[in-house]
Write a structure and sequence with these properties.
There is one protein chain. It contains four helices and 14 strands. It is an alpha+beta fold. A hairpin with a 2-residue loop joins strand 5 and strand 6 (80-88). Helix 1 (16-26) packs parallel to helix 2 (109-120). The termini are close together.
């Protein structure tokens, strides 16, 4: 195990499901496993063909939930399959989520954990408090550089390997906002220019900016994170420190 910086290139150590689930369990969220598949009569349970397995975590007040999903037809974000989907609504009487946030494998689990901690601490998870400047301030306050041409919407890490931007969202991002072309936050890491992304995240239009800012602040944090497995293509960009 080594301590790694910067954390936006540290990957998830292959533990994104386990670590985030542990965070939610510590917050008292209830977990349910939903399995969909084919089952032949008289077939042993261990031989059942599972097409989709979803682990659903519910906040105690039922206003927010998080899903770890392994679908047979994956929802791709930045050409990577979405691993976690986090949702919230304003009232328990309404079945439809007010907003959704999507995270692929490779997102540092500490960063997603901090986003969920901020969500759990919010009595009203569906109404916005701060404006979009809160997100950019969280990034620039820890050394990220605002884009010269788009300083009010985009910031990049000093090594130009990760970006955070407020923009038109790709298809299939679900939100209660009825506008045909809503804008929301997207973030990603591209350690090698032109190579596949290390991870990607998208926040639908109605995600409160202060929650996105919690994700951004954790992502840009200079504090090292422990890792046993390092992502490919990041060798020349990471600073490694042995444990004391």
């Amino acid at each position: 195990m080594v301590w790694v910086t910067p954390r936006h290139l540290a990957g998830d150590d292959g533990l994104l499901a386990e670590q985030v689930s542990a965070t939610l369990a510590g917050l008292g969220w209830t977990s349910l496993t939903i399995v969909r598949g084919r089952h032949v009569p008289d077939q042993a349970e261990e031989d059942r063909q599972v097409l989709r397995s979803t682990v659903l975590h519910l906040r105690p007040d039922m206003l927010a939930w998080a899903q770890w999903t392994l679908p047979d037809e994956p929802f791709l974000l930045g050409e990577l399959p979405v691993a976690w989907q986090v949702s919230a609504r304003a009232r328990t009487a309404g079945p439809v989520a007010q907003w959704n946030a999507y995270f692929t494998r490779g997102v540092p689990y500490e960063v997603l954990g901090d986003f969920l901690l901020a969500l759990d601490a919010r009595p009203d998870p569906a109404s916005g408090f701060d404006g979009p400047e809160a997100v950019l301030a969280a990034l620039s306050g820890q050394g990220w550089v605002r884009d010269i041409d788009h300083p009010d919407t985009t910031a990049t890490d000093p090594g130009f390997a990760s970006s955070f931007t407020l923009c038109l969202l790709p298809p299939l991002i679900q939100d209660a906002d009825p506008r045909p072309e809503p804008v929301g936050w997207q973030a990603w890491a591209e350690p090698v220019l032109g190579a596949p992304y290390l991870w990607s995240a998208a926040f639908s239009a109605s995600v409160p900016h202060d929650l996105v800012a919690a994700f951004a602040s954790s992502l840009a944090s200079p504090a090292p994170v422990p890792r046993r497995v390092l992502p490919e293509g990041t060798e020349d960009r990471l600073t490694l420190t042995p444990p004391s």
